[in-house]
Design brief:
It is built from 1 helix and 8 strands; from the N terminus they run H-E-E-E-E-E-E-E-E.
């Protein structure tokens, strides 16, 4: 029994780990040392990787935080003439979830049956990008927007695309829209 064994451990003589596959006896001292050496090497690599990862600062942002928002869209035009620029604003209650300071978050639209779950990304230059897709098929309807923070609101533009038949031909239709995202719940106060 080597110095790495301790009473009550599974490495005690007679345990299933100490028996050879082809009949009794214990593992040779070299096998025990080889196992411990591999374990120590794996632990060292893990510690080095953790140290390297902590040495690299994660990207953070302070422009968008988790909370309750209103997401609004207004049609600017459409390629298949099925949505007109009429000034009508569609408003959706949006719950933005994520770790405060993270550059990636999710947005759940509560009162929209089509594009309910969104992925949000805040880029280094402060641009917010959002995207959502209905289903997983390659031709599934999808939508995206980009916006910049102007005061207390994110303002920008987006587009929604989907397959349809236009003038008798299968077509990928596009609806362009103005986008606005505004926080409606109280922001947490900064600590002094």
């Amino acid at each position: 029994m080597g110095k790495f064994s301790r009473p009550g451990s599974s490495w005690m003589p007679g345990s299933r780990y100490h028996r050879r596959e082809a009949g009794g006896g214990s593992l040779a001292r070299g096998s025990e040392v080889q196992f411990v050496s591999r374990y120590a090497l794996c632990a060292l690599v893990g510690v080095l990787a953790a140290g390297q990862a902590s040495g690299q600062e994660a990207k953070t942002q302070s422009l968008l935080g988790p909370g309750l928002y209103v997401f609004q869209t207004r049609t600017r035009g459409s390629s298949c003439k099925d949505s007109e620029k009429d000034g009508y604003v569609m408003s959706f209650l949006a719950a933005v979830d994520g770790v405060p300071g993270s550059t990636t978050m999710t947005m759940q639209l509560v009162n929209n049956q089509h594009f309910t779950r969104w992925s949000l990304q805040v880029a280094d230059e402060g641009t917010l990008s959002g995207s959502s897709k209905m289903g997983t098929t390659p031709g599934a309807p999808e939508t995206h927007f980009t916006a910049k923070l102007e005061g207390e609101r994110w303002k920008g533009a987006g587009a929604r695309t989907y397959n349809s038949v236009f003038e008798g031909k299968p077509t990928r239709c596009r609806v362009d829209y103005d986008a606005l995202l505004r926080r409606i719940d109280a922001r947490p106060q900064a600590e002094p």
